[in-house]
Amino acid sequence: MNGYELLDFGGGRRLERFGPWIIDRPCPAAEPFAPAEAALWRQAHARFERDVKKSDASGKSDVSGESGRWTTVESLPERWTIGPEPFHLELKLSPFGHLGVFAEQADNWRWIADRVARADRPLAVLNLFGYTGASTLAAAAAGAAEVVHVDAAHNTIRWARRNAEISGLADAPIRWIAEDASKFVRRELKRGNAYDAVILDPPSYGHGRRGEVWRLSKHLAWLLADCAALTAGRRSFMLLTAHTPEYDEGRLAAMLAEALGETDEAGGRLSARAMSIRGADGRELPSGSAARWSVG
Length: 296
Prior knowledge:
With 296 residues, this protein is α/β, with parallel strands linked by helices.
């Protein structure tokens, strides 16, 4: 991804370069590893620490990813931009330790663009849990007939729309919907609307716009079944990604296959992979899992 580099990782943290700025953040997946270049970490311009809420009976800290604090050693701009062509993403230090991009998704953005560009017709694409819009912009830039971007948070929708503007895609056929993903899909089914492709990157836990509770373990299978119904008879591709440790690529593939009820012989191909980010020293940092279904 242009403008991004994983410099080092280990001890539950990762050191990354976003454009000219070096950021030190927590990363549970990096816990089993040891940092390779201790000197590099002293170059960080900003470091994020999660809030420690409480300790359990064993004395282990219960560290919440909901919020935390940044320590900066140099004055960073309020916002800056990196450019994974053919779109751009505006980054900032959020109160939750995110900057507005998940670099492990870069290969999926390329895959989405390829699926859209190679389709035998212009596609209507639904992006659920759309975050700051990279997958939406990948589909739109590749020529999708329509992209519907759904996220429960109004501020994240605004961030995604800003990314479309700075990418020259402000007039692209994108609908921005601030809504609970499951509710929106059920509403679309009742309306008789349909899509050619669905992209899902659900969190382990979350809340909808009106306080609806999302639990991956409880709700994902239902949502996948609804997405299968939403694309029945016209499905071109589906992409499911997750960062929940118990949901590896095999489990995601099995859930997607069960929801679709289809095999390769029925006209689609299902594949799955572990996502990772390659560090500067060649090591791979585990970064979730992906399952893909597509025709052709």
